[in-house]
Amino acid sequence: MRAKSRGRIRLALILVASILLATLPGGFAPPAFAAATGSISGTVTVPAGVDVNNILVTAGGPTYRTIQVNPSGQFTIVGLQAGEYSVYFYEDASPRHVYSTYYGSAVYAESTPVVVAAGTAVTSIDQQMFTGARIQGKVSVPAGTKASDMYVGVSSDSYHEGVAVSPDGSYDVGPLTPGDYTLNFSTSVQPIPVLQAYYPGVKDHEQAQKISVAQGDIVTGINQILQPAAIISGRLALPADAVPFSIFAEAKSSYDLQVVSAVYVENGVYSIGGLEAGTYKLFFHASDIKIASMWHGGLPTAAASPTITVAAGERLTGPTDTAVPAATITGSHASGASNTDVQVVTADGTIVQGGFSTGPQTFMVANLFPGTYKVQFNRSSGFATAQEGQYYNNLPESSGLGSATSVTVAGGQTLNNINPTSRVGGTLSGKILGPGGAPLTNTPIRVYTKDGTLVTRQANTQGDGTFKVTGLSTGNYFVSAAPEGGTGPVFSGNVLSETNARSVSTTPGRNTDVGTLSYATATQGTQAFDDVPLNAQFEKEILWLASKGISTGWEANGTRTYKPLSPVNRDAMAAFMYRLSGKPDFAAPGASPFKDLPVGAQFYKEITWLADKGISTGWDEADKTKTYRPLQPVNRDAMAAFMYRLAGEPDFTAPEVSPFVDVPVGAKFYKEITWLAAQGISTGWAEAGNTKSFKPLLPVNRDAMAAFMFRYNTKFGSS
After folding, report:
1. Whose CA, among 199, 217, 355, 460, lies 20 to 30 Å from 73?
2. Any idea which UniProt keywords this protein has (predicted)?
């Protein structure tokens, strides 16, 4: 009776609504009917033996509609708003016989979109459906394990499906589109009793054998024997008020500490399965803020944590641990500093725990094991921010972790006000062009250092090919652009080889234009020095020095450095001058002329050549011997003397008035210094009052040495 009453009420409401609509003024349309809708119709054809009534058709776009085709295979989907639609055809039966497909292709990415205009009927969206292929086989499982707990996953580049295994171990996957498929055998049972495997019994996707199927094929005999997995079971004593399911027990491969398998610790008990024979370390990852994340043995880091070794299929029990009360660090960032990424690290930079936001400008690092740490901000690779990476307390990342302030926290303690300083980092900008010279849009840009001392930053190019990467600390960076589907990356310096890439420098608050990197003009380039960035002071002179073989710099771990701001030692200076002179024939003496220079020492030949030419006389010692002091830096006044003697001590009358305020007439090496200035080899420094200084007792840096030698060579043509 009540159902009939509700039906009469609904009918009455519909009639009232109809009368109201009929009385609306001309030209007025209620919002729900303001826009006319369209439709998509067509006919579905299926193979013999397939019931067409089981075919569903879905239109997906501005409106989402699914209908069943009629016994003739025809369908009409109505009520579609204007827009672009994908049309999907699917058999709703068990088992299915034909594979699902989109209009125009079995793959969504290659399907043909159907455009519906307002109020129009799109017809003839017809679809032929085909019998799918099937892959069948049998799964054998270890004793004590049920086959029905197993799962078979089948995948290709564009398709993924899975089925449960029958109690007798058989499986049947399909219908499949023609193509190549990889089979994976696994289970969701905990603890995982078997080793995950790819057909034919390999452990990773790359080694798997692909199964090729044609339309309507039934491929049989794809059988798999699953091997028993090792299981580590243990106990973690938890506080009485611990939140259930707040701790993961993770087994990590001891050689790279990657998570192999993980399970919840439930009521203090855990069993981690799915393990191959091998050696592991256990980590307890806590989310309950009262409990510290820790390694087996109650330790804060992996290094000293005991390893656990299991044999194939072994059920190992016994590891026990006690949860440690957690420490917490909190802080806040300045208004306008956007988000803040925070990580607690050990003294060697190993990340212990990351933080999370607790408010618009506040954050927390929880689950810390009691101990002494350092805190870093905005140093996660890929974290987008304009803020410079830094260490607590107000230390730019370019200063290095070793200079950062340590913080010590006890179990149960909350350490507050561990705050970063708001400081906008440097910026690198530029433009990326393709092989035809057109701008490359949405191309990933990576800004990094080869040794990883400064955090890697990323961005994508805009529509005009330009990019801007922010949040950089003081330093030399490399830039790479890697367009999707391209022939490979292009690097700063407009080269195609990372070895020959040129570094670029920036500092906080400054924008450095990298220039245009163009595939049309990029070359392989030649190797320079990673610590001599583009447009650096004396860049041209340093590269000339390298091209002449006068300085080879240092090479290690794929980098080549010049150390431009390091002082030149006297032994290296001898090598520079010998090479600048064209490496003349010279037989080094069998007995060293210097007490502190043994025969066969580094640069022995070059130093003794320098002495033989009278370019360096060394020092007379009290015991009547001579020393060269090879590791002592060369001062600028001595360098002037070396250059003057290298030139053959040409005739020169020293000026009666010194050109430098810090080199008085008659000073040591006055003639040599003023000769150096007269030749334009050294220009000195501009000082107040239109004066110049030479700074004679300042050690010569390696970049200035390159400039001296370049100018000397220009003047005298030695090399």
Report:
1. 217
2. Signal
Q: Both 234 and 343 in a single domain?
A: no
Q: Give the Cα separation of 603 and 609 in Å (integer).
A: 10
Top-confidence range, 241-245, 558-562, 695-699: 695-699
**Tokens of residue 226, six digits:** 């699953």
Task: Answer whether 697's CB lies under 8 Å from 637's CB.
Answer: yes
Give a yes or no: residue 559 inside a domain.
Answer: no
pLDDT digits 0-9 by tens, 251-290: 999 999 999 999 999 999 999 999 999 999 999 999 999 9
Q: What is the pLDDT of residues 521-555, one digit of tens each?
A: 999 999 999 999 999 999 999 999 999 999 889 98
Same-domain pairing of 660 and 625: yes
Q: Which two tokens stand for residue 36?
A: 């006319």
Domain annotation covers residue 301: yes
What value does the mean pLDDT take over residues 381-389? 88
Burial class (CB in 10 A: 0-12, 13-18, 19+), 595: middle
Q: Which two tokens stand for residue 494?
A: 């407009």
Extract the tokens encoding 397.
Answer: 């990342």
Average pLDDT in the chain: 91
The per-residue pLDDT for 173 is 95
Residue 253 · residue 260 · CB < 8 Å? yes
- Cα 622–627–630 angle (5° rounding)? 150
- For residue 20, the SS3 value is helix
Tell me what pLDDT residue 134 has. 95
Q: Please check whether residues 143 and 172 belong to one and the same domain.
A: yes
Q: Are 472 and 427 in contact (CB under 8 A)?
A: yes
Nearest to 522 by CA among 503, 492, 496, 504: 496
What pTM was estimated for this model as a whole? 0.71
Tell me phi and psi for residue 248, to 5 degrees. Answer: -100, 135
Which of these ranges, 85-89, 616-620, 670-674, 675-679, has the smallest mean pLDDT?
Answer: 616-620
Domain CATH number, residue 44: 2.60.40.10
Any idea how long the chain is? 719
Q: Which domain holds residue 390?
A: 327-415
Q: Which long-range contacts (CB under 8 A, 24 or more apart) does 215-220 make?
A: 215/130, 215/131, 215/132, 215/133, 215/178, 216/130, 216/131, 216/132, 216/133, 217/133, 217/134, 218/133, 218/134, 218/136, 219/133, 219/134, 219/135, 219/136, 220/136, 220/137
The single-letter code of the amino acid at 170 is: S
Residue 683's pLDDT is what? 85
The radius of gyration of the chain from alpha carbons, rounded to an integer in Å, stands at 38
Same domain membership, residue 25 and residue 47: no
Q: Are residues 358 and 306 in the same domain?
A: no
Q: Which 3 state secondary structure label does DSSP give 276?
A: coil
The Cα angle at residue 125 between residues 121 and 130, in degrees rounded to 5: 160
pLDDT digits (tens, 9 = 90+) for 104-150: 998 898 999 999 999 999 999 999 999 999 999 999 999 999 999 99
Residue owning tokens 């930079």: 349
3-state secondary structure 51-72: CHHHEEEEEECCCEEEEECCCC
Which residue, of 278, 305, 322, is where some domain finishes? 322
